[in-house]
Structure of U8 snoRNA-decapping enzyme:
Amino acid sequence: MADIGWGQLQAYEAYGRAGDKKEDFNIISYEEALSDKYSSSKHASHSMLFARNDAILWDLYNTRGTVLMQMRFDGLLGFPGGLVDPGEHPLESANREMVEEIGLDLNILKLSDSDHVVSFVNKDKNLVLHFYGKEITLSQFQEIELGNLKAPDYGSETLGVIRPPLFTMGDGYRGLPAFLSNSFAGNARQELLIGLQHFKLLSEDEIQEAVKSWLTFQIKNTQ
Ligand SMILES: O=c1[nH]cnc2c1ncn2[C@H]1C[C@H](O)[C@@H](COP(=O)(O)OP(=O)(O)O)O1
């Protein structure tokens, strides 16, 4: 295939390169992540909006909750967010990106420092990732989904919001484990699992089962 290069994306290409592994990211405290130690690092912020939802599908599966993720321009799945601009606070960046990518109205809904969930450092990339999360009502969630088509970045940087299934179906694979088999940007898969546990949308055991099933299926598929 002809190499068409990266154009204006050249400076950022390495940050978003596919193939990041969970082990590349070490958890650090918010305080440390915001300290001078990482002032010369590149920072990025991403956010998980979610609503609890105990609707039962087909009299079988408790949907548990709706979590907002998105299909990105590069075919990877991720949370709304992006690189922090020079001089910008990661929290400001998280809010700005939600306006641009999902059309959020900050007069109605805005993240604050108390919504911080976890931060990571990827030493090889000199990149610090901040992850925020906020519970909203199901009707707020549906409003955001409807408004997404009018978000400034819709159709260019972002290609639509999605709800990951949080249940696992009878074959032990379809549902959340199959969703985990997708390709994710950065450590978005890890962030999703941390978010599900942090907000008690799923228990630790349920998450471990889903991860085990996803990995087992992957191994079978490569044999
Ligand atoms: O959802 C995500 N969770 C964790 N890391 C992510 C997520 N989406 C992207 N990334 C990584 C990939 C890059 O290393 C940086 C910045 O990426 P991106 O969101 O594409 O930033 P811009 O939109 O280019 O500002 O975070």
